[in-house]
Amino acid sequence: MKLKILAFGIAKDILGGTEKEIDLAEGTTVQSLKVKLENEFPELKRLRSYFIAVDNEYAENDQVIISTNEIAIIPPVSGG
Fold first, then answer.
1. What stretch of H or E contains 39?
2. CATH number listed for the domain at residues 1-72
């Protein structure tokens, strides 16, 4: 399945834009998505942490992704 990944903050710089389309097997988990992203974009491994959101909610690593899900990479944020 093809998924559109939305990227914010430093993740946008790492992926080279605000959106990236990737191919995944049907029934892929969030953890498998992270592994694929980190293999394609090794700079993601250097982030202290980042989250994957599925349909506007933070996702657990074992959550299964389907083709209609909206996926976003949420990097660490700082504020003041």
1. helix 30-40
2. 3.10.20.30
